[in-house]
Design brief:
The chain has helices at about 10-20, 25-35, 40-45, 50-65, 80-95, and strands spanning about 35-40, 65-70, 75-80. With about 100 residues, it is an alpha+beta fold. It has one domain (about 5-95): Winged helix-like DNA-binding domain superfamily/Winged helix DNA-binding domain (Arc Repressor Mutant, subunit A, Orthogonal Bundle). The protein has a three-stranded antiparallel β-sheet. The longest helix has 13 residues, at about 25-35.
Length: about 100
Amino acid sequence: MYKNMEEVDFKEIEKVFKSVANKRRLKILSFLKKEKEATVGDISESIKLSFKSTSRHLSVLFTAGVVDKDQRGLEVYYSLSPVQSSIIKHTLTIL
């Protein structure tokens, strides 16, 4: 937990919150929380969104560090980033 306000990286927190402030991205995160990891195709099928849109939303989440990706052959598997999950959890305790 943060001991004082000087330890808080507000720019990083803002980046994370902006990336998840979208209902489709929240659906993606909810799916990944339940499934642990999935491909773009798995996610797009589950949340009823086009492959292209799902890929774009995952790119935003990846850039913000909210999800991780792992290339396995031709497939890319996405999972929740444990680092950002911690930031979100800690941020909610200080706000």
